[in-house]
Protein backbone atom coordinates (compact mmCIF):
# COMPACT_ATOMS: atom_id res chain seq x y z
CA UNK A 1 0.00 0.00 0.00
CA UNK A 2 1.44 3.36 -1.07
CA UNK A 3 1.87 6.08 1.52
CA UNK A 4 -0.27 9.14 0.88
CA UNK A 5 1.58 12.18 -0.43
CA UNK A 6 2.22 15.05 1.94
CA UNK A 7 0.74 18.49 1.24
CA UNK A 8 4.12 19.78 0.04
CA UNK A 9 4.61 16.79 -2.28
CA UNK A 10 1.11 17.33 -3.72
CA UNK A 11 1.95 20.98 -4.25
CA UNK A 12 5.17 20.02 -6.06
CA UNK A 13 3.30 17.63 -8.33
CA UNK A 14 0.63 20.19 -9.22
CA UNK A 15 3.28 22.84 -9.90
CA UNK A 16 5.05 20.46 -12.27
CA UNK A 17 1.83 19.61 -14.09
CA UNK A 18 0.85 23.26 -14.57
CA UNK A 19 4.35 24.72 -15.07
CA UNK A 20 3.74 26.14 -18.56
CA UNK A 21 0.53 27.85 -17.51
CA UNK A 22 2.07 29.12 -14.26
CA UNK A 23 5.11 30.67 -15.94
CA UNK A 24 3.03 32.39 -18.62
CA UNK A 25 0.55 33.87 -16.14
CA UNK A 26 3.29 34.76 -13.64
CA UNK A 27 5.22 36.71 -16.28
CA UNK A 28 2.06 38.50 -17.38
CA UNK A 29 1.23 39.57 -13.84
CA UNK A 30 4.76 40.89 -13.20
CA UNK A 31 4.73 42.95 -16.37
CA UNK A 32 1.25 44.29 -15.51
CA UNK A 33 2.06 45.13 -11.88
CA UNK A 34 5.53 46.57 -12.56
CA UNK A 35 7.50 43.66 -11.13
CA UNK A 36 9.17 43.26 -14.51
CA UNK A 37 11.10 46.42 -13.84
CA UNK A 38 9.79 48.60 -16.69
CA UNK A 39 12.63 47.63 -19.00
CA UNK A 40 15.36 47.45 -16.35
CA UNK A 41 15.67 43.73 -17.04
CA UNK A 42 14.78 41.93 -20.24
CA UNK A 43 11.83 39.57 -20.62
CA UNK A 44 14.28 36.74 -21.30
CA UNK A 45 16.17 37.40 -18.04
CA UNK A 46 12.92 37.58 -16.10
CA UNK A 47 11.82 34.29 -17.66
CA UNK A 48 15.09 32.64 -16.58
CA UNK A 49 14.58 33.88 -13.01
CA UNK A 50 11.02 32.56 -12.91
CA UNK A 51 12.02 29.17 -14.33
CA UNK A 52 14.85 28.78 -11.82
CA UNK A 53 12.73 29.82 -8.85
CA UNK A 54 9.99 27.38 -9.75
CA UNK A 55 12.48 24.54 -10.29
CA UNK A 56 14.18 25.15 -6.93
CA UNK A 57 10.82 25.48 -5.21
CA UNK A 58 9.64 22.12 -6.58
CA UNK A 59 12.92 20.47 -5.60
CA UNK A 60 12.59 21.62 -2.00
CA UNK A 61 8.93 20.57 -1.85
CA UNK A 62 9.77 17.10 -3.19
CA UNK A 63 12.40 16.76 -0.47
CA UNK A 64 9.74 17.35 2.16
CA UNK A 65 10.72 20.90 3.15
CA UNK A 66 7.92 22.65 5.03
CA UNK A 67 9.44 26.00 6.03
CA UNK A 68 11.48 28.56 4.13
CA UNK A 69 14.44 27.98 6.48
CA UNK A 70 14.71 24.25 5.78
CA UNK A 71 18.04 23.04 4.36
CA UNK A 72 16.29 21.85 1.20
CA UNK A 73 15.59 25.50 0.31
CA UNK A 74 19.17 26.74 0.87
CA UNK A 75 19.86 27.18 -2.85
CA UNK A 76 16.53 28.93 -3.31
CA UNK A 77 17.33 31.38 -0.52
CA UNK A 78 20.72 32.07 -2.13
CA UNK A 79 18.98 32.74 -5.43
CA UNK A 80 16.51 35.17 -3.81
CA UNK A 81 19.31 36.96 -1.95
CA UNK A 82 21.28 37.46 -5.18
CA UNK A 83 18.13 38.55 -7.03
CA UNK A 84 17.27 41.08 -4.31
CA UNK A 85 20.80 42.52 -4.29
CA UNK A 86 20.80 42.78 -8.08
CA UNK A 87 17.44 44.53 -8.13
CA UNK A 88 18.47 46.92 -5.37
CA UNK A 89 21.45 47.98 -7.48
CA UNK A 90 19.28 48.24 -10.62
CA UNK A 91 16.94 50.68 -8.90
CA UNK A 92 13.90 48.48 -8.25
CA UNK A 93 11.60 49.53 -5.42
CA UNK A 94 10.96 47.19 -2.47
CA UNK A 95 7.42 46.59 -3.76
CA UNK A 96 8.62 45.67 -7.24
CA UNK A 97 11.19 43.29 -5.78
CA UNK A 98 8.78 41.57 -3.39
CA UNK A 99 6.12 41.26 -6.12
CA UNK A 100 8.39 38.72 -7.82
CA UNK A 101 7.19 36.29 -5.14
CA UNK A 102 3.79 37.65 -4.20
CA UNK A 103 2.55 37.75 -7.79
CA UNK A 104 3.11 33.99 -7.92
CA UNK A 105 0.64 33.48 -5.07
CA UNK A 106 -2.31 34.57 -7.19
CA UNK A 107 -1.38 32.14 -9.95
CA UNK A 108 -0.74 29.14 -7.72
CA UNK A 109 -3.83 29.77 -5.58
CA UNK A 110 -6.09 29.27 -8.58
CA UNK A 111 -4.16 26.16 -9.59
CA UNK A 112 -4.10 24.53 -6.15
CA UNK A 113 -7.51 25.51 -4.82
CA UNK A 114 -8.76 21.98 -5.52
CA UNK A 115 -6.40 20.76 -2.79
CA UNK A 116 -6.76 22.95 0.28
CA UNK A 117 -3.86 21.39 2.18
CA UNK A 118 -1.38 21.84 -0.68
CA UNK A 119 -2.62 25.38 -1.34
CA UNK A 120 -2.20 26.35 2.32
CA UNK A 121 1.29 24.82 2.57
CA UNK A 122 2.47 26.60 -0.57
CA UNK A 123 0.82 29.88 0.45
CA UNK A 124 2.72 29.91 3.77
CA UNK A 125 5.99 29.20 1.98
CA UNK A 126 5.50 31.96 -0.58
CA UNK A 127 4.67 34.44 2.19
CA UNK A 128 7.91 33.52 3.95
CA UNK A 129 9.95 33.76 0.75
CA UNK A 130 8.34 37.11 -0.05
CA UNK A 131 9.38 38.48 3.34
CA UNK A 132 12.85 37.00 2.92
CA UNK A 133 13.15 38.74 -0.46
CA UNK A 134 12.05 42.05 1.05
CA UNK A 135 14.53 41.76 3.94
CA UNK A 136 17.34 40.81 1.54
CA UNK A 137 16.50 43.85 -0.58
CA UNK A 138 16.64 46.13 2.47
CA UNK A 139 20.03 44.75 3.53
CA UNK A 140 21.36 45.17 0.00
CA UNK A 141 20.14 48.78 -0.15
CA UNK A 142 21.77 49.52 3.20
CA UNK A 143 25.05 48.08 1.91
CA UNK A 144 24.80 50.22 -1.26
CA UNK A 145 24.07 53.36 0.77
CA UNK A 146 26.91 52.65 3.21
CA UNK A 147 29.35 52.08 0.33
CA UNK A 148 28.24 55.30 -1.38
CA UNK A 149 28.68 57.22 1.86
CA UNK A 150 32.21 55.86 2.25
CA UNK A 151 33.03 56.78 -1.35
CA UNK A 152 31.62 60.29 -0.92
CA UNK A 153 33.58 60.72 2.29
CA UNK A 154 36.81 59.64 0.60
CA UNK A 155 36.18 61.92 -2.40
CA UNK A 156 35.42 64.86 -0.11
CA UNK A 157 38.77 64.57 1.68
CA UNK A 158 41.46 64.74 -1.03
CA UNK A 159 45.07 65.32 -0.07
CA UNK A 160 46.84 67.60 -2.57
CA UNK A 161 50.60 68.00 -3.04
CA UNK A 162 51.24 71.74 -3.32
CA UNK A 163 55.04 71.63 -3.31
CA UNK A 164 57.87 69.32 -2.38
CA UNK A 165 57.26 68.40 1.28
CA UNK A 166 54.04 70.49 1.42
CA UNK A 167 50.57 68.94 1.41
CA UNK A 168 47.12 70.50 1.58
CA UNK A 169 43.96 68.91 2.91
CA UNK A 170 40.89 70.98 1.96
CA UNK A 171 37.89 70.08 4.13
CA UNK A 172 34.32 70.69 2.99
CA UNK A 173 31.26 70.05 5.15
CA UNK A 174 30.84 68.97 8.74
CA UNK A 175 33.43 66.82 10.49
CA UNK A 176 32.20 63.82 12.45
CA UNK A 177 34.01 60.88 14.02
CA UNK A 178 33.77 58.61 10.97
CA UNK A 179 34.90 61.29 8.53
CA UNK A 180 37.71 62.37 10.85
CA UNK A 181 39.04 58.81 10.76
CA UNK A 182 39.07 58.85 6.94
CA UNK A 183 40.73 62.29 6.95
CA UNK A 184 43.39 61.12 9.36
CA UNK A 185 44.13 57.94 7.41
CA UNK A 186 44.39 59.77 4.08
CA UNK A 187 46.60 62.49 5.50
CA UNK A 188 48.96 60.15 7.35
CA UNK A 189 49.33 57.86 4.35
CA UNK A 190 50.20 60.79 2.08
CA UNK A 191 52.67 62.17 4.63
CA UNK A 192 54.48 58.83 4.52
CA UNK A 193 54.22 58.37 0.74
CA UNK A 194 55.39 61.91 -0.13
CA UNK A 195 57.75 62.43 2.80
CA UNK A 196 55.91 65.64 3.66
CA UNK A 197 57.10 68.11 6.29
CA UNK A 198 54.14 70.51 6.27
CA UNK A 199 50.43 69.71 6.11
CA UNK A 200 47.99 72.55 5.53
CA UNK A 201 44.46 71.79 6.73
CA UNK A 202 42.10 74.22 5.01
CA UNK A 203 38.70 74.61 6.70
CA UNK A 204 37.30 77.29 4.42
CA UNK A 205 34.51 74.89 3.45
CA UNK A 206 33.65 73.85 7.03
CA UNK A 207 30.42 75.68 7.93
CA UNK A 208 30.96 75.85 11.70
CA UNK A 209 33.67 74.96 14.17
CA UNK A 210 32.39 73.94 17.58
CA UNK A 211 34.07 72.07 20.42
CA UNK A 212 33.51 68.69 18.78
CA UNK A 213 34.92 69.78 15.41
CA UNK A 214 37.90 71.32 17.19
CA UNK A 215 38.56 68.02 18.98
CA UNK A 216 38.51 66.19 15.64
CA UNK A 217 40.99 68.70 14.19
CA UNK A 218 43.27 68.31 17.21
CA UNK A 219 43.30 64.53 16.76
CA UNK A 220 44.30 64.91 13.12
CA UNK A 221 47.01 67.44 13.96
CA UNK A 222 48.41 65.25 16.76
CA UNK A 223 48.54 62.23 14.46
CA UNK A 224 50.33 64.24 11.76
CA UNK A 225 52.90 65.48 14.29
CA UNK A 226 53.61 61.93 15.37
CA UNK A 227 54.45 61.22 11.73
CA UNK A 228 56.94 64.13 11.72
CA UNK A 229 54.84 66.74 9.89
CA UNK A 230 53.90 70.19 11.20
CA UNK A 231 50.36 71.43 10.57
CA UNK A 232 48.97 74.79 9.58
CA UNK A 233 45.24 75.51 9.64
CA UNK A 234 43.91 77.95 7.06
CA UNK A 235 40.47 79.32 6.29
CA UNK A 236 39.70 80.77 9.71
CA UNK A 237 36.85 83.18 8.90
CA UNK A 238 35.92 86.02 11.30
CA UNK A 239 32.69 84.28 12.37
CA UNK A 240 34.56 81.05 13.12
CA UNK A 241 37.28 82.93 15.01
CA UNK A 242 34.65 84.63 17.21
CA UNK A 243 32.91 81.31 17.86
CA UNK A 244 36.15 79.61 18.85
CA UNK A 245 37.08 82.46 21.22
CA UNK A 246 33.60 82.33 22.75
CA UNK A 247 33.88 78.57 23.28
CA UNK A 248 37.40 78.86 24.64
CA UNK A 249 38.77 76.52 21.96
CA UNK A 250 42.57 76.55 21.64
CA UNK A 251 43.82 74.61 18.63
CA UNK A 252 47.45 75.12 19.74
CA UNK A 253 48.57 75.34 16.11
CA UNK A 254 49.54 78.07 13.66
CA UNK A 255 46.46 79.40 11.82
CA UNK A 256 46.11 81.59 8.75
CA UNK A 257 43.14 83.37 7.26
CA UNK A 258 43.61 81.95 3.75
CA UNK A 259 45.19 79.00 2.01
CA UNK A 260 47.51 81.38 0.14
CA UNK A 261 48.89 82.76 3.41
CA UNK A 262 49.34 79.25 4.79
CA UNK A 263 51.12 78.14 1.62
CA UNK A 264 53.50 81.11 1.79
CA UNK A 265 54.33 80.25 5.41
CA UNK A 266 54.86 76.59 4.53
CA UNK A 267 57.31 77.52 1.77
CA UNK A 268 59.33 79.66 4.17
CA UNK A 269 59.48 76.80 6.66
CA UNK A 270 60.88 74.38 4.10
CA UNK A 271 63.37 76.96 2.83
CA UNK A 272 61.61 77.66 -0.46
CA UNK A 273 60.32 80.85 -2.03
CA UNK A 274 58.37 81.95 -5.08
CA UNK A 275 59.66 84.92 -7.07
CA UNK A 276 58.14 86.85 -9.92
CA UNK A 277 59.87 86.32 -13.25
CA UNK A 278 60.13 89.46 -15.37
CA UNK A 279 59.52 88.71 -19.10
CA UNK A 280 62.64 89.20 -21.27
CA UNK A 281 60.99 91.84 -23.49
CA UNK A 282 59.98 93.95 -20.50
CA UNK A 283 63.43 93.57 -18.93
CA UNK A 284 65.10 94.78 -22.16
CA UNK A 285 62.80 97.79 -22.38
TrEMBL record:
Keywords tagged on the record: Phosphoprotein
Domain STAS: 156-270
Keyword Phosphoprotein: yes
PROSITE patterns linked to this entry: STAS
Listed Pfam families: RsbRD_N, STAS
Domain of life: Bacteria
Phosphoprotein in keyword set: yes
Protein name, per record: STAS domain-containing protein
Organism this protein belongs to: Teichococcus coralli
Amino acid sequence: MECPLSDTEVAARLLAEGEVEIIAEWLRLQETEGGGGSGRISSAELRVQCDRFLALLRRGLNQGAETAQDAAFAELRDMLRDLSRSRAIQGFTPTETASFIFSLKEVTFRLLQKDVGAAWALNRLLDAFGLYTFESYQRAREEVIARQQREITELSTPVVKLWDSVLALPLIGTLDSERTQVVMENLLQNIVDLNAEIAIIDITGVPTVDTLVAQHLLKTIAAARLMGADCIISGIRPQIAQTMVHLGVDLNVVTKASLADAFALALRRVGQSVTRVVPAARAGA
